[in-house]
Amino acid sequence: MKTFQSNLSLWAIAALLAGGSLTACAQATTGSTAATSTASDPAKATLLTPLQQSVTKIKKLVATGDPDFDYSFQAKLHAQGVQDLLKQEIQSGKDTALIKMAKTMLPTVDADVTLLDGTMRQLKPTRPNQAYTQAQGRNIEAMSLKLQQTGSSDKLTSNLDKNFSTLLMDQRQDAIDMATTYLKYGNNATLKTYAQGLIDKSTQQIAQIKATIK
């Protein structure tokens, strides 16, 4: 009788483990299916890919710890990501209001990239600040995770214009977070002016997108 009860206990444990494995497999399969769907749908992939590439490049940067030097590189790569996003909407979008917004934003972003490129060439890392590196590192990891979750969920649809709105709002909020962190630690006057202006512009742009998609 004890042997039978012991076997029942072992079977129960095995069933629980099997159930957990099946759940994990189901979750993995669901995530894999969503990722495959994103990769095969141009309305998602053409917008998501340039942003993912931008964040990947930012993560690969070797931090010096100098807020001015590091932010100039980080902000430039981040701005290049939104450049590509805007160009995709202009090229493939159908919503006239969103296309107009993208066309209005693009020259400003182009100018930002030029400004950042010129500024970073004048800088040399001189004052490492671990607090900045850690804070900005958290922002970058959050950006990366957000894009991964967006790509593996049903947040994006087969409507390119809606996906553009979703991704642009997230990208603008990420820009605000990075700029806000820089302003706490940065010293360069040009970059501080850029960062504050970016916060103001991005806040307005998010409000504009929300009003457009109502």
UniProtKB/TrEMBL annotation:
<keyword id="KW-0732">Signal</keyword>
<protein>
    <submittedName>
        <fullName>DUF305 domain-containing protein</fullName>
    </submittedName>
</protein>
<dbReference type="InterPro" id="IPR012347">
    <property type="entry name" value="Ferritin-like"/>
</dbReference>
<feature type="signal peptide">
    <location>
        <begin position="1"/>
        <end position="26"/>
    </location>
</feature>
<dbReference type="Pfam" id="PF03713">
    <property type="entry name" value="DUF305"/>
</dbReference>
<feature type="domain" description="DUF305">
    <location>
        <begin position="129"/>
        <end position="211"/>
    </location>
</feature>
<dbReference type="InterPro" id="IPR005183">
    <property type="entry name" value="DUF305_CopM-like"/>
</dbReference>
